[in-house]
Amino acid sequence: MAEKEGGIIKKGHEEGLKMAVSLLEEFGLPLGLLPLEDVVEVGFVRNTGYFWIVQKKKVEHNFKLISKLVSYDSQITGYVSKKLIKKLKGVKAKELMLWPPVSEIVVDEPPTGKVHFKSLAGITKTFPVEAFAAGQ
After folding, report:
1. CA–CA separation, 42 vs 54, rounded Å?
2. CB of 133 closer than 8 Å to CB of 30
3. Which residues form a coiled coil (predicted)?
């Protein structure tokens, strides 16, 4: 995989989770955005912003504050930069009975306390950043 070339890779749940959280911190994204379980590997390529996360199985997480059920596939990939994750693959948010893929996550800059989730279907949903605080 060419996009993984030159990447930093952390194996195992503890090391992988630490790296995922430090990436969210570094790029100003809510720390609870990726509620991961049984992490196998996390990788990041600093020059391109490409990241990947591999978990043992798909995880569904309910963000209680906004009553949103989000599905995280066993493999999540995307490109991270300041306040932004784009070309995101492996994350879906339930809308009624559908699970449209989330393709982009943007945190407002300057901060407004809002985070926007864009789907490939052109749907954008906006929620308060607090909904994605660690431990929610």
Report:
1. 6
2. yes
3. none
Q: Which residues fall within 8 angstroms of residue 29, CB to CB, at 6 or more apart? A: 23, 80, 83, 85, 105, 107
Number of helices (H) and strands (E) in the chain: give both, helices first: 1, 9
Looking at residue 11, what is its pLDDT?
A: 97
Report the 10 Å Cβ neighbour count for 120: 11
H or E element, residue 59:
strand 59-63
CA distance 78 to 90: 9
Structure confidence at residue 57 (pLDDT): 97
Structure tokens at 119: 């789907």
Query: What's the pLDDT tens digit per position in 64-117?
Result: 999 999 999 999 999 999 999 999 999 998 877 777 889 999 999 888 999 999
Residues ≥6 apart with Cβ < 8 Å to 37 = 13, 55, 56, 57, 59
